[in-house]
């Protein structure tokens, strides 16, 4: 019975962990799309500033110096857009250069972002056919099997008969 329970636990964790590479791929695709769109906005702003004889900082300073609340707000909005572009570009570079273990260790950071939450909301499970997916599934099976086997053994301890006890009959 213990082996059956441990096997079920192993399969459950194998199935769960085998999905991580697919989640990481879907997250990376969404992140790449966001970076691409922010790049277009950033480059367009820089071109417009250059056409006006300004660099980015001078153009933003002109927005912020305006007495018009709308223009000052646009300047703040563009500053936030450039900061987000820099942050997401850096994240994408780190993810693309990370190995399988590094990506797994970064999972909490993925889920703590707007893109991570939206990826999880729209996540589509996939059968792992890559070596990475198979390794995660195998690791998940072994870990799940060992954990549930240990728990089953621990729970069953009080109910086990002790072997080697001498019985006296009359």
TrEMBL record:
InterPro entries: DUF2937 (IPR022584). The chain crosses the membrane at residues 134-156. Keywords: Membrane, Transmembrane, Transmembrane helix. Pfam families: DUF2937. This is DUF2937 family protein. The keyword Transmembrane applies. It comes from the Bacteria. The keyword Transmembrane applies.
């Amino acid at each position: 019975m213990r082996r059956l329970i441990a096997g079920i636990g192993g399969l459950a964790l194998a199935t769960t962990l085998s999905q991580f590479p697919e989640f990481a791929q879907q997250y990376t695709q969404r992140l790449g799309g966001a970076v691409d769109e922010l790049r277009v906005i950033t480059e367009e702003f820089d071109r417009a500033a250059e056409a006006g004889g300004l660099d980015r900082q001078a153009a933003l300073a002109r927005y912020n110096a305006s007495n018009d609340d709308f223009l000052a707000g646009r300047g703040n909005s563009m500053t936030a857009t450039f900061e987000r572009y820099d942050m997401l570009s850096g994240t994408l570079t780190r993810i693309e250069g990370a190995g399988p273990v590094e990506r797994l260790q970064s999972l909490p950071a993925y889920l703590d972002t707007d893109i991570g939450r939206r990826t999880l909301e729209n996540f589509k499970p996939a059968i792992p056919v890559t070596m990475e997916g198979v390794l995660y599934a195998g690791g998940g099976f072994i870990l799940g099997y060992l954990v549930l086997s240990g728990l089953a053994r621990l729970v069953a301890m009080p109910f086990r008969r002790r072997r080697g006890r001498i019985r006296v009959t009359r």
